[in-house]
Amino acid sequence: MTGRIPYCIASMAAVFLLAMALTACSPFRPDARTTTLAPLPVAYTLYSEQPREMGKWWESIGNAELNGLVETALAANLDIIQAWARLRQAGAVSVQSSADKYPTLDATGDYQHTRSSAKDGTGSSTTSETHAIGLEAGYEIDLWGRIEAEAQSGRLDYRASREDLNTSAMTVAGEVVSRWLEIQSQRRKERIIEEQIKTNETYLELIQLRFRNSISTALDVYQQRQNLAKVKALLPPVKSQEQLLLNELALLLGKAAGTVAVSDAEVLEPRELPGLGLPADLLAARPDVRSAGLSLSSADWSVTAARANRLPSLTLAGSGQYSGAQLGTLFDNWMLSLAGAVVGPIFDGGYRKAEVDKARAVVDERLAAYRETVYTAFKEVEDALTEEKWQKEYIAALSAQLEASRISLREAVSRYAQGLDDYLPVLSALMSVQNLEVTMAAERTNLMLYRVSLYRALGGTWTESLPDPDKRTADINIEQTGIEG
Q1: Cβ atoms of 235 and 190 closer than 8 Å
Q2: Which domain holds residue 299?
Q3: What per-residue confidence (pLDDT) applies to 139?
Q4: pTM to 2 decimals?
Q5: Do the domain assignments include residue 111?
């Protein structure tokens, strides 16, 4: 009995090893593309001599609190946590798509108890028992590469899901920095408006004093009161917007609204342009571009699988079983069964051909999506460069306008104090100065936001070190070799 067991197992193993060897050469593979999918210009409209930075760009702002907020968001943001869960799902699906590359082996066990009686008047009966244990194995020989193509498609989908996670992380980091900058902007506006209120109250006191001395008119007093009320009305919307931004920041951090506080900070203007590299670098630096490319490659492999599925398949099956009437005699009888089956489609109503057409249409769709993603990435870089360039000129023009308005205000006040003009030129110049002060605060923030947009558009590789909050993604062991695209 002991010699039969190795013989049974060795026979089955030899058959399956031979079957697996037959799969070494697969005739179907995706067709290689010989043209550039989305050609880009050789350079951007602006040039930077700085080295290309692929790391955590927000650290260049130089605020420790901001750095902590971004790191907190990358670990606790709910969108990112969902992306990690989707990645684990994609990993499990990838493992499933590769499972058919290997034989299946199942253990079987059977017990039967039979009792029969004769109707001959004697009342005799017969009882029998059967015990059986064994193994069943099956394997489909991948003659045309269908199974390998499905496995490659699953692995590529997994990698694309990881790039989608990276895209979410880059988006969240940019949003956190943007909200922080906008909060600081609202606080600067609040300080400017409070100073303007004090200034207008001082002007009102002086005009009222002049009115009591019959130097100014009642209209001057009313006009200054109107301007004071106008400036005070600017404060509530600023405070409201600040709280709304804090609530948005809390959500980005995965916390309830009203639970996040931000300290005041002085935000400097952006330094020189960061290293831009070449437009072609976006193909490797942008995770959304990488994801679109991987999804396209996955669709190519799906076409291969659909084509191979139209051809016959060869399946091998084997089973070995020991049986006996009693447990003590279980290993006295054994049976070994080996079988092969060929199944080929003859008529399926055009289902498999339609599946090929469908897979090819998915390729066309994802090819267009890839090109759109590449060109969108290039556009976002160019937009950010253009916005920052002209925003700097706009701020310079506003600064000159503000300086001219301040000079005009001083002259108007001087002429009004000497009784050469009425109060209207003073009021007009004062309103111009105060409007420009608020506008300058907003536009300086916009300049920083355009720089944030540029960093986001350039991408980076810092997302590769993101910590998995659940620590389970690393447990999915997926072979990454042999994948094209």
Answers
A1: yes
A2: 26-106+144-312+351-475
A3: 86
A4: 0.84
A5: no
